[in-house]
Amino acid sequence: MSTIAVVGAGKIGEALLSGLLHGGRPAEELLFTERHPERAAELTRRYGVAAVDVAEAAKRADVLVVAVKPQDIDPVLDELAPLVGPDSLLVSLCAGLPTALYERRFVEGTPVVRVMPNTPMVVGAAMSAVSPGRYATREHVRTVSELLSCVGAVVEVPESQQDAVTALSGSGPAYFFYLVEAMIDAGILLGLPRAVAEQLIIQSAVGAAKMLAESDEHPVILREAVTSPAGTTINAIRELEKHGVRAALLAAIEAARDRSVELGKVHEEPERH
């Protein structure tokens, strides 16, 4: 079996470690890197997985999962570049960073798979989109998809669609949290205790998500089933349309896509003249 090293054990990195362990991967086949010694020690106590430095991770692992913030990628690549080659598989969980960035920095032929996960990974319910780089084979994609299936659902997309994925599902949980927050506030405004409003809205969100996942019906049909003529729901929908909520969501997701594009451009290779 291959050894997997998670480079950067923040929330997503830790969630992946936890998911792999729950999926049956032995702790002996996992490694992680972490800049802060106290957190490294805590994660080792919690999961029984060894903390190593970046050089040791590159030396021992067959699969390197880079899960650092995009702005922290350059020093990590500086450490990895002399140590990673075609015999390794590099998996990038860094928003906005293209596979070409890694391919420029590593030995030619190094396989890279780009992944956009999201934070529900911490409860085993992530949505992850994978895209192979220039040197990644179908076997590499299958390997990454199998790893990620331990922490949620996986879909493969062309890398040209990754900025859209980042905006839609990568940032998507924040949109739902924002909506739930507003609806809880509305419940308080209408006189409900906060705890009651939270229970009503959170369970409604869970139930609605379950219906969406398990029903073959389009969301429009499911919404219309709740919307009686001259009833309460249609009055609420009218106000949402009047205030441009749909248009605001479209604009917000476009803005997130544009920011993802910007993050990638920071690391584009400068043109030669």
From TrEMBL:
Its EC number is 1.5.1.2. Belongs to the pyrroline-5-carboxylate reductase family. GO terms for biological process: L-proline biosynthetic process. One of its GO terms (cellular component) is cytoplasm. Transmembrane segments: none annotated. NCBIfam families: proC. GO terms for molecular function: pyrroline-5-carboxylate reductase activity. NADP(+) binds at residues 67-70. It is found in: Cytoplasm. It catalyses: L-proline + NADP(+) = (S)-1-pyrroline-5-carboxylate + NADPH + 2 H(+); L-proline + NAD(+) = (S)-1-pyrroline-5-carboxylate + NADH + 2 H(+). It is an enzyme of class 1 (oxidoreductase). Residues 3-96 form the Pyrroline-5-carboxylate reductase catalytic N-terminal domain. It comes from Amycolatopsis arida. PANTHER family: PYRROLINE-5-CARBOXYLATE REDUCTASE, PYRROLINE-5-CARBOXYLATE REDUCTASE 3. It holds the Pfam family F420_oxidored. Residues 159-263 form the Pyrroline-5-carboxylate reductase dimerisation domain. Keywords: Amino-acid biosynthesis, Cytoplasm, NADP, Oxidoreductase, Proline biosynthesis. SUPFAM superfamilies: 6-phosphogluconate dehydrogenase C-terminal domain-like, NAD(P)-binding Rossmann-fold domains. Its main location: cytoplasm. InterPro entries: 6-PGluconate_DH-like_C_sf, NAD(P)-bd_dom_sf, P5C_Rdtase_cat_N, P5CR-like_CS, P5CR_dimer, Pyrroline-COOH_reductase. The keyword Cell inner membrane does not apply. This is Pyrroline-5-carboxylate reductase. Pathway: Amino-acid biosynthesis; L-proline biosynthesis; L-proline from L-glutamate 5-semialdehyde: step 1/1. Catalyzes the reduction of 1-pyrroline-5-carboxylate (PCA) to L-proline. The gene is proC.
